[in-house]
Amino acid sequence: MKIIPLFLLPLFVGFLFPIKTTELVHQPAITAVPDTKTIITGADQTAAYLPYLKGKRIGMVVNQTSIIGTKPSVDSLKSLGVNIVAIFGPEHGFRGNASNGAKVDDSVDAKTGIPVISLYGKNKKPSREQLAQIDLMIFDIQDVGCRFYTYINTLNYIMEACAEHDKELLILDRPNPNGYIVDGPILKKHLYSGIGIHPIPITHGMTIGEFAQMINGEGWGLPANKKCTLRIIKVANYNHDMAYTLPVLPSPNLNTQQSIMLYPSVCWFEGTIISQGRGTYMPFTVLGAPALKGKYSFSFRPVSIKGMSETPLHQDKDCYGLDLRKYDVNLLRKSRKLNLQWLMELYKAYPDKARFFDTSQSNQIGNFDFRSGTEDLRKQIIAGTSEKEIRQSWEPGLSAYKQMRKKYLLYK
């Protein structure tokens, strides 16, 4: 769906018809745009929140996906006179150019001169001292709807810090490109890690604003008997069934719309001997390994690529397997399910099955288990369990989550 930003609309409208603070306090989700058939992100609805920022010291949790119109939201809001005193950068950094998993240090943004505090290095959440200079925190990051995509973890840490230090959080909501699918096993608590800290399925089917409401409602990671004070600028004209093409790539290795749509069904291969195309310019759209030579004709060769994957699996080796670049992702939309067939197929084809799953971490709990959220799926694939039986094993947890999710939805 085509996106028409509202950044160029006259901003004085918001000042002529301001939203009263008392109204905002009792209305957690706000939409202040005319009815149209075009998806309009929360950030693009400047008239709905710009008056509320006036006179406040603002902190912003943002990355390269945080835009108003076509410009970075930090740059745009600063040019409009908003007093931004700190930027908090998540994984991949504020400008989105750090490699996957790379440590990101504190710095000063060269363009705006605003201090940038890393949330993907020595600290995961802002400190008391860092929040002392802030009156209001803004969270504006594009999510892709997967448990192991770390920005929902960042959201939780921000909410925890804001709740601890009585700071309000304003969320500029954005669509979830995989919002139509709620599927996968529920993450077991003993498998919580940096790629999953919530008891949710692999695809959660929520926007960042909705997920924040769930964190508050369920009390996940928050101080005892405290919630984060939230204000949410809703996406206009959006529901979870809508197709949504991201205007900005969400991370270096999700560099096409195809990769974004395949990501939920492909990322768990990172816990296996199978390359997902890191070290190529087509990550998360190809799957393969050197040992599959002779079983598949398609091949690719991972290499070191600065800013994407500098030490990829099977570096400088030809990998043979599946080319999913032309796979019809509408099949995923129609089924509303993760694709298990690729995992089952490549395990069956791999000659040395003892090496297929990575179990190099302590207590023989491999990376695959952290990604899938359970040891059961790995064991089921090894045992040759049918897809029907695998999906049945995700119950009743998956159905219970879907029922809980309904309480927090802002969109149909």
From TrEMBL:
<dbReference type="InterPro" id="IPR048502">
    <property type="entry name" value="NamZ_N"/>
</dbReference>
<feature type="domain" description="Peptidoglycan beta-N-acetylmuramidase NamZ N-terminal">
    <location>
        <begin position="58"/>
        <end position="257"/>
    </location>
</feature>
<dbReference type="InterPro" id="IPR008302">
    <property type="entry name" value="NamZ"/>
</dbReference>
<dbReference type="GO" id="GO:0033922">
    <property type="term" value="F:peptidoglycan beta-N-acetylmuramidase activity"/>
</dbReference>
<dbReference type="Pfam" id="PF20732">
    <property type="entry name" value="NamZ_C"/>
</dbReference>
<dbReference type="InterPro" id="IPR048503">
    <property type="entry name" value="NamZ_C"/>
</dbReference>
<dbReference type="Pfam" id="PF07075">
    <property type="entry name" value="NamZ_N"/>
</dbReference>
<protein>
    <submittedName>
        <fullName>DUF1343 domain-containing protein</fullName>
    </submittedName>
</protein>
<feature type="domain" description="Peptidoglycan beta-N-acetylmuramidase NamZ C-terminal">
    <location>
        <begin position="261"/>
        <end position="411"/>
    </location>
</feature>
